Amino acid sequence: MNFVEELKWRDMIHDIMPGTEEQLSKEMTTAYVGIDPTADSLHIGHLVSVMMLKHLQVCGHRPIALVGGATGMIGDPSGKSLERNLLDEQTLRHNQEAIKAQLAKLIDFNSDAPNAALMVNNYDWMKDMGFLEFIRDVGKLITVNYMMSKDSVRKRFSGEGEGMSFTEFTYQLVQGYDFMHLYEACGCKLQLGGSDQWGNITTGTELIRRKLGGEAYGLTCPLIKKADGTKFGKTESGNIWLDPRYTSPYKFYQFWLNVSDEDAKSYIKIFTLLGREEIEGLIAAHEEAPHERKLQKTLARELTCMIHSREDYDKAVEASSILFGGATAEALRGLDEQSLLQVFEGVPQYRVPLSQLESGIAFVELCTVSAPVFPSKAETRKLIQGGGVSLNKARVEAPDRQVTTQDLIAGKYLLVQKGKKNYYLLIAE
């Protein structure tokens, strides 16, 4: 497979340096992507560059994931998070191992193949380098004029933002030095990244040319935005993380399931390994029957299985059917406590005395006196007569139906439903 051709049809190329494609066709090429280690999990914003590494390895080349530990030790110089906590080495190493475990689901680090992936940390070669040594050996190679010509620098100097610190200004030298180090140590000739990294990448190729007389290359992918122009990967509750401790598999699945039609056509190419013919067929089928949401369903399946597991995907589908479909009482009882709380996050919750259920209590009493689910007993009876009330997904046939501890899900929950969309969670304590 041709790496550049693969990225082209997936719309994953923004800039590519002349000679890159020739280098890739000439020999197995080592390429790297930099990853910020400020958390012990990646989020879906990282996935674009990780997928580039995945395609690179599938095409027979060797990927390197570089954890930017040196950057983590000094704080992010982007100006976006001035109050970021600086990392100590212990935290940094923990984050690095957690990130590697996530990457290992997508990239092969452990085989005997010549293109098995590497993980490196720039803290390892930056920690013992002094400032004077750095400006003598690296700083002298790049002129201020060259650094000022970069878009990211020029925009800040022309009045956009609050100026630029020395750290930010020299950051391209630090990243450029990483590229030069990997060129020497690992034979790395290509850097991959988002389009906002182009200036830093080309500084690296320039350092390699001036210091070592070598040829190196750069390739960037477009920054992913949603069709409405808003930031990809952010929700009201924050980032969509790959670690289930921070974003549950159910929420992860729901994120992809709910993307717009326009975004789904783009994301299916970028975030899955499905082939060109299959994707074109899916897009055509989706356009014929958009209400079936085939693209979103495929996207949610592929990503949830890839990042989590088939079992997590099946659970997420089951949980979705409980909330949005005609799932049975049996399916509801099959949910564990964590899944139940994830599915019904945000629905009104009421606490009721466990002792009432131990002795048994009439449904109408439970949902008006113990918990104000319904405004009055008369209205509750009327709704039940109309067949519009369910307990744990089973229709309530009589207002005086006794509710006991036998009805509890996961030993402490009751799910009351009014109509199709109104849910109430009762918690017995």
Set out the fold topology.
Elements: H1 3-9, E1 15-16, H2 20-26, E2 30-35, H3 47-58, E3 62-67, H4 69-74, H5 89-103, E4 118-121, H6 123-126, H7 131-137, H8 144-148, H9 151-157, H10 166-186, E5 188-194, H11 198-212, E6 217-221, E7 234-235, E8 238-239, H12 249-257, H13 261-270, H14 276-288, H15 294-307, H16 310-324, H17 329-333, H18 337-343, E9 349-352, H19 354-359, E10 361-362, H20 363-370, H21 377-385, E11 389-391, E12 394-395, E13 402-403, E14 413-418, E15 422-428
Parallel strand pairs: 2-3, 2-5, 3-4, 5-6, 9-15
Antiparallel strand pairs: 1-6, 7-8, 10-13, 11-12, 11-14, 14-15
Helix pairs in contact: 10-11, 12-15, 12-16, 13-15, 15-16
Task: Characterize this entry briefly.
This protein has 429 residues and is α/β, with parallel strands linked by helices.
